[in-house]
Amino acid sequence: MFRKGTLRAATAIALFAAGGASAESLTIAIVNNGHMINMQKVAEAYTDETGVELNWVSLEEGVLREQVTSDTATGGGQYDIINIGMQEAPIWGAAGWIEPLKFSAGYDVDDILPAMRNGLSHEGQLYAAPFYGESSMVMYRKDLTDAAGVSITDSDSWDNVKAAAAAIHDPDNGVYGACLRGKPGWGDNMAFITTVVNSFGGAWFDADYRPVLDSAEWNAAINFYVDLLSNYGPPGSEGNSFNEILALYNEGKCGMWIDATIAASFLEVDGVAYAQSPNAGNPVGSNWLWAWAMAIPAGSPNAEAAGKFIEWATSKDYVQAVGTHPDFGWGSVPTGQRASTYAIPEFQAAAGFAAAELAAIDSAAPEATDLKPYVGVQFAAIPEFPEVGSAVAQEMAAALSGAKSVEEALAASQKAAHSIMKEAGYYD
Questions:
Q1: What pLDDT is stored for residue 27 in this prediction?
Q2: Per-residue model confidence as pLDDT tens digits over 294-318
Q3: CATH of 136-288+364-423, one of 1.20.120.1200, 3.40.190.10, 3.40.50.970, 3.90.950.20
Q4: What is the model's pLDDT at position 249?
Q5: How many CB atoms lie within 10 A of CB 104?
Q6: What is the pLDDT of residues 108-129, one digit of tens each?
Q7: Do the domains 136-288+364-423 and 9-134+290-351 match in fold?
Q8: What is the DSSP string of 215-274?
Q9: Superfamily the domain 9-134+290-351 falls into
Q10: Which band of pLDDT confidence, cut at 50, 70 and 90, is reported for residue 368?
Q11: If you placed Cys at 214, which of 1, 132, 234, 414 could pair as Cys (CB 3.0 to 4.6 Å)?
């Protein structure tokens, strides 16, 4: 509904020779997280072999979404390759904003995990290729839970998780019980918050796409979230997103973190254990599903060269290149995108999180249900969702900071969402 270290030289040369690059340079907009930053180093070999210069524009998650959406929607032509995800890819593909992707037989599209392939396609056509994929899970300090005499289990209750956070919370010694996203953005605080709402039995919209943010389920979920972070989280949580919490965790300041499975690749603290996401009685939708993927804006004059780079950067050979790179290694390869990665013995030996990550991805449930009429776990796959989600995100940050009560924030959220959906023509 659309209303308004080393690269394998042979691989690189083969990709380049099969038609040749049509541009001497490509401008690539990426999110500023670890795997994307690593790619800039690994891709130096691609430039060495093909002669294609790569110009990187690395942006914070919310800024990236804003700039890429604006440029792509208007045909601005600022980028040859863009990072987008499952919310955008099917919608933008259907709207003709991005090019359909076609790869050589050796690329092995069938090796891409079905959840990722389906989430990045429209009517069976892939419009964005996953650089890495993720769900969400609990990452916790087992040394702290053991010392406190508490445990965290797969699909635990939120009440038990809160009790564990209370037991390990020790702010006088710089340890906070739970570190969770609070920074406003439809893909920032709302990604995590939506999974909490789902687990309490809530949803964004009813069957007529009317917002239901004033429901008892939303009220219970947001009160729980605010109470948990206010009592057992770090100060200033309303400003924390992925990168901020990763830094806190690696400084030993977080007892537990519930966030993207991909974070496990970058944790440097010893004794981390993993568990499937908690819930409040409804496990469906308690863990999200996402991929940071690469797409080509429609009409790009460098589409051929862009496609060849995307084929390389999301291939099995790229995984090998990272795994054998002297600066990175098998614990740093992008995950969640290809089934074959999980069968590599070196990866299995280096990645203690692999089984938990794959279990989370496999259990994610993006399909529409009786509870929620839309596709998507932590988002709704409709064009209006980014606007709705961004408006609600600001209200949730206000509730977390104490600037508004939960009830005030939810009332304002319902009003804003209703106005957006009504203007979009979903109902009179």
A1: 97
A2: 999 998 999 999 999 999 999 999 9
A3: 3.40.190.10
A4: 98
A5: 12
A6: 999 999 999 999 999 999 999 9
A7: yes
A8: SHHHHHHHHHHHHHHHHHS-TTGGG--HHHHHHHHHTT-BSEEEEEGGGGGG--STTEEE
A9: Periplasmic binding protein-like II (3.40.190.10)
A10: very high
A11: 414
pTM: 0.92
Angle between the N-to-C axes of helices 406-423 and 385-401, in degrees from 0 to 180, rounded to the nearest 10: 170
Answer yes or no: is pLDDT of 30 > 50. yes
Q: What are phi and psi for residue 84, nearest 5 degrees? A: -135, 180
CA 150 centroid distance within chain? 29
Tokens for 117?
């392939």
Which of 238, 241, 244, 209 lies closest to 428 in space, CA to CA? Answer: 209
Rounded Cα distance between 115 and 358, Å, is: 11
- Rg, the chain, Cα only: 21
Burial class of residue 194 (count of CB atoms within 10 Å of its CB; 0-12, 13-18, 19+): buried
Task: Name the token pair of 30.
Answer: 């990426």
